[in-house]
Specification:
Strand order of the largest sheet: 1-2
Organism: Castanea mollissima (Chinese chestnut)
Largest sheet: 2 strands, parallel
Shape: elongated
Helix content: 10-25%
Family: Belongs to the phosphoglycerate mutase family.
Protein name: Phosphoglycerate mutase-like protein
Distance between the termini: 37 Å
Radius of gyration: 18 Å
Order of helices and strands: HHEE
InterPro entries: His_Pase_superF_clade-1 (IPR013078), His_PPase_superfam (IPR029033), PGM_Phosphatase (IPR050275)
Number of helices: 2
Structural class: mainly alpha
Strand content: 5-15%
GO molecular function: phosphatase activity
Number of strands: 2
Length: about 100
């Protein structure tokens, strides 16, 4: 049994591509816990950084991803965004207004 390639190749497929969804996994941007964890790995275990805020670099990373998502047209094809309830994931609101958001 052959699976069609990602570009929609003409070979037989287990599932028709028109019935499949694409899953994008996005890691959160840089948070304060990442900076402190780079200095001292034990900082990752600190309750102080459990729900860490983004750093200025993290917000720049969010903005860069937002620009890419809109420029590529991906924002028009997103049906659902699933996020963690942590503060740093709240930056995900750049997708589009009518997207279903679960955390």
């Amino acid at each position: 049994m052959l699976i069609a390639d990602m570009d929609g190749g003409a070979g037989p497929s287990l599932f028709p591509l028109h019935r499949c969804k694409t899953l994008h996994l996005v890691r959160h941007a840089q948070g304060i816990h990442n900076v402190e964890g780079d200095k001292n790995y034990k900082a990752y275990l600190s309750p102080e950084y459990f729900d860490a805020h983004l750093t200025p670099l993290g917000w720049q990373q969010v903005d860069n991803l937002r620009k890419h998502v809109h420029a590529s047209g991906l924002s028009k094809r997103v049906d659902l965004v699933i996020t963690s309830p942590l503060i740093r994931y709240k930056a995900i609101h750049f997708w589009k207004e009518n997207v279903q958001l679960l955390h």
